[in-house]
Amino acid sequence: MVTQVRTSVEDRIGTVLLDGPDRMNAISVETTDQLLLTLEELGNSPDVGVIVITGSGRAFSAGGDVKVMHDMTSMTYENYLHIMQPTQRLPGLIRSLPRVVIAQLNGVAAGAGLAIAAACDMRIAGTSARFTTAFGKVGFSGDCGISWTLTRLVGTAKAREMMLLGEMLGAEEALKLGLINKLVADDALEADTRAIAARIANGPVVAYQYMKANLLAAETEPLQAVVNLEAMHQTRAFMTDDHREAIAAFAEKRAPCFAGR
Predict the structure, then answer these.
(1) 6, 111, 180, 249: which could form a disulfide with 17 (CB 3.0–4.6 Å)?
(2) How far apart are the C-alpha atoms of 90 and 140, rounded to whole Å?
């Protein structure tokens, strides 16, 4: 059965569930297509302030569906490159969405599953989470932006080690490497993730949108280009209702009540 993408929105938190527990939420072309449509919809919805991606059962995602790969071995170069297009789009979409995207890592994140998590803005893992690139084990070189994101998260030396050896990392080591942002007990994972998500969803989401854009630019652009971008975005944030509310709340010695505009 192909992994389905389920969505829900509650308290301004949009949840994206990879639902194929019998295959450890393996990702097919159809799954990727669903993810693209879902993320674009949630990321541009005025009712959503943050997005959480997680998996069903004991895995976040085991990566590409190996059973489907078996049926694709006779494809031509051109045909295979064509079906790779959704995968090529996914990491850039996650990083450029106007909403913060959090990976809630409830188990194994391997291959493309790890790549999706690495593209997210934050990664919160339970203690049973494990991580591996896994591409070499199926004779692949890696996709879904894994070379770019992994290098920036753990550094060039460790990224090379992880890609070339494909060894499984435990959650504690992933935290030490900076691969994940926060490690919590398995039974607290959902509650802790939702607490962080709620904090963001009820915050100045327009400002967060510009923060994401600034940080993305900072990974590739020279200093002055980023400084110029920050000035433009700061000016736009200055004009928001949320900024005015924050200033009023400070003067009145109360907590601000942000409206996301």
Answers:
(1) 6
(2) 18
- Global pTM? 0.94
Q: For residue 92, give the 3-state DSSP assignment.
A: helix
For residue 3, with 0-12 CB atoms within 10 Å meaning exposed, 13-18 middle and 19 or more buried, which class applies? Answer: buried
Q: Where are the alpha helices (DSSP H) in the chain?
A: 29-43, 66-70, 77-83, 85-96, 112-119, 146-154, 156-165, 171-177, 189-201, 205-218, 223-238, 241-251
Burial of 50 (0-12, 13-18, 19+ CB in 10 A): buried
**Of 66, 62, 112, the residue nearest 91 (C-alpha):** 112
Structure tokens at 42: 């949630």
Query: Within 13 Å, how many C-alpha atoms sit on residue 234's CB side?
Result: 6
Query: What size, in residues, is the chain?
Result: 261
Q: For residue range 200-255, what is the model confidence (pLDDT) as tens digits?
A: 999 999 999 999 999 999 999 999 999 999 999 999 999 999 999 999 999 999 99
Backbone angles phi, psi at 197, to 5 degrees: -60, -40
Long-range contacts for 133-140 (Cβ within 8 Å, ≥24 apart)? Answer: 133/162, 133/163, 133/166, 134/62, 134/63, 134/110, 134/166, 135/111, 135/163, 135/166, 136/163, 136/164, 136/165, 136/166, 137/166, 138/64, 138/66, 138/69, 138/111, 140/64, 140/111
Cβ atoms of 144 and 90 closer than 8 Å: yes
